[in-house]
Amino acid sequence: MDSLLSNLVKKLEPYIPGEQPAVSKLIKLNTNENPYPPSPEAIKAMQQAVGGGLRLYSKPECEDLRHAIAEAEGLPGIEYVYPSNGSDEVLAFAFQAFFNPGEKILFPNITYSFYPVYCSLYGLDYECIPVKEDFRLDVELYNRKNGGIVIANPNAPTGLCIGLDQIKRLLEYGRDRVVVVDEAYIEFGAESALPLIHEYPNLVIIRTMSKSHSLAGLRVGYAMAQPHLVSAIISIKNSFNSYTLDSVAQAGAAAAMKDKNYMRANCLRVMKTREWAKAEFRERGFTATDSMTNFLFVKPPGISAGELFERLRHAGILVRYFKNSPLVNEWLRISVGSDKDMEELFKQIDIIL
């Protein structure tokens, strides 16, 4: 009954995640999960964390994990970092901590579709800035009065990135406003904004361990910024739920963060497969962006994206199709799977085409 619902819920259009069907033998290339397992050190740490200690609350300040992140990222101390349940949660905290109603937040018109959802949920105003014809960000268009800027770098679902010189310009355009750089896919070949963190007191970088560290099921993300901004995020977190990250997740994430060589080797494997798959798509007449992520963004030849999506699904291969997004509904986002998965993908594509 609608009368039992708040006005907010009635008008809210929530984010729709990629489907996670409970069907065996599917090839899942729709949610950008890493095809390789997490660090054995992370598995060991989580196994050790499971026991009688679970009767106690987890550490609310996540000190061990923060130390591990700060050391891995070359930051001076834990005051520069704060983890959360996936990057989505810390993004939600950032939208509440740094943006005000009546002041328009700027982000691209093609980007992670959770950004407008947060704005609707928190009553924030926003403006979608058009990307260029080739889907690249037009940084000059952000040089206007704003209440903050949010970009994903590399961007989703296009996979394209901008360099540090362009990020610097965004930070200068919003000197008195926070610029959030969402680096969910940064470990797959793009250049991080992390070197700018000491120079710009308005920079917030947000990362996830889901893709690069193969920990999507653990739900760990983190924010990096100067201490005054991290303190604001912590204030929001403590006003929402003081124990957001559980003990097992803290232990596993800390161990994974310390095992940087393992993570890097897995990312390099994904990148090698991505470049091979990109060439295979182009040989078949697909248009493919120069993705710097663990997914490819492709436009099929001689068949609609919707039809190819359905026929691949029928063949047991899931990819992501944005049918309700007019700007990209002729494109598919395809996660980079194992070499075996990608070979089966191209086998089925050849049959369909």
Tell me what the structure shows.
The protein contains eleven helices and 13 strands. The chain has helices at residues 7-11, 40-49, 63-73, 86-98, 114-122, 164-173, 227-240, 247-258, 260-283, 305-314, 339-352, and strands at residues 27-28, 81-84, 105-108, 126-129, 148-152, 179-182, 203-208, 221-225, 287-288, 295-299, 317-318, 320-321, 332-335. Helix 2 runs antiparallel to helix 8 (247-258). The chain is of the alpha/beta class. Strand 3 (105-108), helix 5 (114-122) and strand 4 (126-129) form a beta-alpha-beta unit. The protein has two domains: 2-37 and 261-352, Aspartate Aminotransferase, domain 1 (Alpha-Beta Complex), CATH 3.90.1150; 40-259, Type I PLP-dependent aspartate aminotransferase-like (Major domain) (Aspartate Aminotransferase, domain 2). A seven-stranded mixed beta sheet has the order 2-8-7-6-5-3-4, sandwiched between helices. Strands 9-10-13-12 form a four-stranded antiparallel beta sheet, covered by helices on one side. Strands 1-11 form a two-stranded parallel ribbon.
Please write out the topology.
Elements: H1 7-11, E1 27-28, H2 40-49, H3 63-73, E2 81-84, H4 86-98, E3 105-108, H5 114-122, E4 126-129, E5 148-152, H6 164-173, E6 179-182, E7 203-208, E8 221-225, H7 227-240, H8 247-258, H9 260-283, E9 287-288, E10 295-299, H10 305-314, E11 317-318, E12 320-321, E13 332-335, H11 339-352
Parallel strand pairs: 1-11, 3-4, 3-5, 5-6, 6-7
Antiparallel strand pairs: 2-8, 7-8, 9-10, 10-13, 12-13
Helix pairs in contact: 2-8, 3-8, 4-5, 4-7
